[in-house]
Predict the 3D structure of the following.
Amino acid sequence: MLFLSQLLALIRKELLAILKDPSSRTLLFAPALMQALLFGYGATYDLTHAPFAVLDQSRSAASTEIVARLEGTGVFHRIATLENTSQIAGQIESGDALLVLQFQPDFAAKLAGGAEAPVQVILDGRNSSTAGLASAYVSSIVAGYNADQGATTPLTIVRRAWFNPNFESRWNLMPALIASLSMLQTLMLAALSVAREREQGTFDQLLVTPLTPTQILIGKALPSILVGLLQSTIIFLIIRYWFGIPMNGQVWLMYLGLVTFTTAAVGLGLSISAIALTMQQAMLYTFIVIMPLMLLSGLLTPVQNMPEILQWATYANPLRFGIDLVRRVYLEGATLREVSFDFIPLLAVAAVTLPLAAWLFRHRLS
Amino acid sequence: MTGFTVTAEDLRRTFDDADVGEVVAVDGLSMRVREGELTALVGPDGAGKTTLMRMFAGLLKPQSGRLSVLGIDVAQDPQSVQDRISYMPQRFGLYEDLSVQENLDLYADLHGVPMDQRQERFGRMLEMTDMARFTERPAGKLSGGMKQKLGLACTLVRSPDLLLLDEPSVGVDPLSRRDLWKIVQQLVDDEGLSVIVSTAYMDEAERCAQVFVMDKGRLLADGSPAELTARAKELTFTALPPPGVPARELQARLIDARDLVIDAMPQAGNVRFIKQPDAGDADLRQLLDGIETEARTEELEDAFMMLLRAQDKDAPAGPAPEAANTQRPATDDKPVIVVRDLVRTFGDFTAVASTSFDVARGEIFGLLGPNGAGKTTTFRMLCGLLPATSGHLEVAGRDLRTARAQARARIGYVAQKFALYGNLSIRKNLEFFGGAYGLRGRALKARINEVVAQFDLDPAAQSGQLPAGFKQRLAMATGLLHQPEILFLDEPTSGIDPLARRAFWRTITALAGTGVTIIITTHFMEEAEYCDRIAIQDAGEMLIIGTPKQVRARAGDGAGQTMNDAFIAVVEQHRENSRSRQVAA
Amino acid sequence: MSGSGFASRLVALTRKETRQMLRDRSNLVVGLLLPLVLILLFGYGLSFDVTDARIAVVLEDSSPITLNAVAGLAGTDYLSPIWLHSMPEAEAMIRAGDADAILRVPAEFTANLAQGRGTLQLILNGVDSNTAQTIEGYATGAITNALQHLADRQDTRFTGSGVTVIARTWFNEANNSTWFLVPGLIVLVMTLIGAFLTSLLIAREWERGTLESLFVTPVRPLELVLSKLAPYLIIGAIDLIMCLLAARYLFEVPMRGSLWLVILSSMLYLLVSLGLGLWISGTTRNQFAASQMALLLSFMPAMMLSGFVFDLRNVPAVVQVISQALPATHFMSVIKTLFLAGNYWPTVLRGLVILSLYAALLIWATHRTLAKKLD
């Protein structure tokens, strides 16, 4: 009872210290909101406005039809019609056109003769993933054209995509933001919480009270966890209702995952905080930790594409499993049993960092 | 040349505050400061001294009025002024990661001091500050007093046309303070330097040719120390308490009688006081109740207290705690604090060397010593914040470092610089610390109301924006919220004006009266007079423990000697001895 | 004060900043070690290139033709097939995250194929759309190839007539993602020094009160700004060299433009990045706020909105406008062009002009924040 009432006093103070100031309140929630919106629109691998140029030396019905089909997708839009091959380089080099479609003069003749009639596609490869996508897109449009013209197709591969039928990369990226954006600030908040008190001298004042290290730990961790969950919720709501990405899984399970993940992140932050002597150190250490966590999390590129050694290293990265958990519960509707493995590394990180932080409170002095 | 370094006419400067609105820092102030002299600005917290200094230095623009420094209109052309003056802000910006020499070089380069003059100047500065041995040491590793001396040396790398010093001696021990003044005095004598210094120490103001007394942004009085001192003429006395009555008890009685007595202070076992000019002889005699008094020569401090008291009639003399709350049996004669052979080393540096002492219940125990003497280390070990390297340590029967958490509920702690949560209100701070000590519900509310009333605090005020005096009161209220048996106070009066210090000590003496044990460190040696016993530490060693009287006696020839002199004598004797011992060995 | 006063004060201040930078080890960790870690992580850790994607192959028909057709899946580095016999088993693997795709060969496949209407079913986990689409491409290609070989041997015509696509990717023929990530890394590293190191510099001096003492000397605000830039320009230059060496020798990214232009534009952007950090620092006067601002205004946008991984051609107009306002976006396009496309002057010149304007603007703005006033 006394334990709880002391703890409550500490939690109330920590929350007040975070939320009292209008500017720090803004700093906590506005960036999450802004980034969720901005990255929701900006962070996409999908082709939406792919500019292209055409060099049609065949001037045939077939070439016109193919260009029309390309434009008809709404994904490609023609920005230029070229007259000769020397103009191609300028279009690509300047980055004005993502691709140039070239029909040679004998294109129509070959096609009519039943031979293979090649279309040249020149792509700007400075962004390899866009180039790859655009190339695949053009191929599928051309295949569609062939099929409609009654060309023989001995083999058909029927493709069906689960969980994200239209291959929208936003669907993949945004749920990952629920975990990663909130981690950025919770980690920082936790990392600064003890370092700030040390710098201002209030930590000594705290240590001479009858509060136990466990109480201080819980009192410091809970408010950061709450802020993290609140940020996650803001991002979750934006994704669910603003961007309308359907949620297939259980909300409670996602939150169970988020609580575990945020606790692990806060544990990491508090350990940094307990090691750092000044706020400046705490901030720099946080940056140093955050960068690899973000890069090795599967946020931008899949963990599977990494070399084996790095894949092993990601087991210590709570963000990897936080993102995996949220993505799979949100998009795939995974059950607790299916994602149970993700909890193990998260719990392990929390189980190491939290006691470490508590021990450091009293043993990292002067 | 006009003969005046600074001419101010009707200066006014306000600041916008989010909570309070407009705050007037300097309010229609006019003054003229003569050239080639030492000039002092004195006044309580919030008098506007720092704002004024910053306006002189061209860092703040006055909103109205005219200000000319060295004949230049500062508001128009601050850079020309800054090229010619030197300014030492309250917290001098030393680069803590640079060495002493590198800090000096930087400022010499910035002021464009030619190389040939530089060596001579550095040599002199280092010699005067006694820092020639430490030139390679990072400034951050220096003690507080040394930092301040280095700050002064950095401002004086060249001879300026005007030197501005903003409270140069806050938090500085008596020895360093003496060194600082020696440097300034020497430059005034040798080079005819013009100096303006703001200070809370009256003995420093007394050295100046001209003193300006400020309060709430206005000028209360000005003149030479002698002219100002004359205001207290024939009002100053010393009361001699009968044997067995502690001076601080008599002092408490006198200072509480505000109609009759302006101010009272214990000194050398006696009590010096100033009577109200209109106090009736009969009333005074009744108050003194047969205690003998002698007239004494008035001092600048007396005049200063008179000026301030006249301004500030309603301020509480000193909040006294209700005796009933904290009354404890005084019969228990077991010591509350036992320290035996306490040692603390950091690497190969010995911060505290084999220290032993006891403190009895209800005692006021003062821990004194120069900056870096090991006071704070000793203090932190007692509070359980730092493990001892070796030795035995008991506070209320336990070592707080290893004791269970609840044992800490029996002590109260007021940290240096009053560590409080600056962005929380006073009430929230109290609620938090009360909660941390396990108070809750109605009991907590009742205690908060008590301490708020006792220390005259406004519970809604933001604690980070309080003036130093109020921060100190809040820190005290926080430390006493859970009615501890032992109260630890680390330099609680540093940077606090004399008025607030009187109030503070009134509370302390009242607390001791109810059986609370007080451990306190301070740089104001006259405050040692309030203590039952004091201990002086230097370089980690305990030099002397005893009553203020015994310490003064040990220091040598008795009468008229202040505690400040005694302290310096004790420390210097010790340093002399250990040096000769080293030579012998 | 004469010009020589300016020079000697600048030298003194620069010496001071350099010493401070060198004495605080965390500066060096962030300034030199972190970029090194990033180089390795980016080069090795980040990749869009799918390798060993797990594809569950459900063989409901196991005729020799079928086996031949799917054998092609095992022949590529990109895919790693798992052979199964029932759909529920395969579906469970996708749900458990143990497989990325299912290729189902229906029981009547051989018979249908003989009649020229063979159908295979490919089920993809679409969550990671990039990977899914890549797998689709590889799987389709592998099977079509295998069947082609088969047809060639039996001398039957397999491919139909019609239009074929011959794609040629310029600048990055192998479509290797490292080639476009590594030049972008230079942008990130240059941004990082500004965001994480210089953003603390002025704020720290405000917090520690050292500026007040410095103000009342003959020092001019511009000297303070320049002296704070100098040491970090050197750190940035070292990082640049590390990045270039890694790009050349570790990741073998070609550099088709001029090395001097790469260095010039990188140093110019470094100046912008440091200037932005200093300006944030001088405006906030508070280390915590400065670091948060720097993270939100400088680093995160440079990572997400500069065209580093996400192609700006795909984003809505509003986001376009925001990304065009970022100096990082302009440097990103210059550096990618210089590395992969060559000295394409219109892009390079435009970028250099914009970066120079930013550098001048930020240094001017920072210098304003250091006007010698305390209010």
About this structure: DSSP finds 14 helices and five strands in chain C. Chain C touches chain A through 107 residues (CB under 8 Å). Residues 78 and 138 of chain C are 7 Å apart (CA to CA). The first strand of chain C starts at residue 53 and ends at 59.
